[in-house]
């Protein structure tokens, strides 16, 4: 099996699974309980909280655990809107956000908030002039992803807070770092940051929200007062402990993994471009940590004269797993809202595949992928039914 859909989810590190099993079988106490079994669980939660904050690169602020990146995004967007609605009603986001942000913004529009959706260019790079023009002294929230989950484009998150200060915005800056955590240094200027466990070889069903000191995000779930009252409900101790291990390993290996993935990305692109005509790269070709470049973890390519879904299932028969876009955005149907926002033509969208790399991939696998993708593309082009 060659798994190249790491932007959808990742295989857990063995250390993560081992840690989770210990907290399922031995240290299974409720962390709110007063006896030792509960105290041991509470220690695991505290340790993971500190580990994840350190991996994010922050000394201050608080980490609160959620059920995943979607809940963390919802908590940030709705929380900021409710906290600051008396100071303004404007929200600024982008047209290519994850549905976990976009659907929140659409709901807030129904409640009377004004939402500006900033556009992107052909490679998903943000219109900076439009962003700066949109932010004003009524803007209570700017919410933007760090790395786009379909193209890998690095968004200009390090510029946002400067613009907000310049425009005297009273708002909160929320950064969705689900795709960048463990791959790039996070934005130190963000007030609120969302991350997820299963994108960094941790467990599914666990995420976290970072809230900077003195930033007010109201309680999202009410009940027993866990997570300092911000998110009630008994903590998922095995998943939290596993998330902490995954964050520690990912941060320790981040620089080396970035170099490895960048080499795999270039090798794959060069090989496919040499073997196949009419290949369009939808991601920025450059990689790096500067603004408007591409994260090394993924690349989105259109193979004209084919359909991405057909290629996906053909490659699956050879044990190669890729995707046509976000696993969370379309209920398996319809065109990518990201590629549409980029202005791609229907045939370019229909022929698009996303290859996303993880720490468990190696460059030798790319030769097999190049061979199988090239063979599949040539086969379906000969049929002529998708032109």
Describe the structure.
- By secondary structure, the protein is an alpha/beta fold.
- Helix content is 41%, strand content 14%.
- The strands form three sheets. Strands 2-8-7-6-5-3-4 form a seven-stranded mixed sheet, sandwiched between helices.
- Strand 3 (90-94), helix 4 and strand 4 form a beta-alpha-beta unit.
- Helix 2 (36-56) runs parallel beside helix 7 and helix 3 (69-84) runs parallel beside helix 4 (99-110).
Strand order of the largest sheet: 2-8-7-6-5-3-4
β-strand percent reads 5-15%
The biggest beta sheet reads: 7 strands, mixed
Give the fraction of residues assigned to helices.
40-55%
- What integer value in Å does the Rg equal? 21 Å
Order of helices and strands: EHHEHEHEHEHEEEHEEHEHHEH
What layout of secondary structure does this protein have?
Blueprint: E1 2-3, H1 14-25, H2 36-56, E2 62-66, H3 69-84, E3 90-94, H4 99-110, E4 114-118, H5 128-134, E5 139-145, H6 157-166, E6 172-176, E7 192-196, E8 207-211, H7 237-275, E9 279-281, E10 298-303, H8 308-317, E11 320-321, H9 337-341, H10 346-350, E12 352-356, H11 364-383
Parallel strand pairs: 1-11, 3-4, 3-5, 5-6, 6-7
Antiparallel strand pairs: 2-8, 7-8, 9-10, 10-12
Helix pairs in contact: 1-7, 2-7, 3-4, 7-11
Describe, in short, the structure shown:
This protein is α/β, with parallel strands linked by helices and 387 residues long.
List keywords for this structure.
387 residues, alpha/beta, seven-stranded mixed beta sheet, globular, three-stranded antiparallel beta sheet
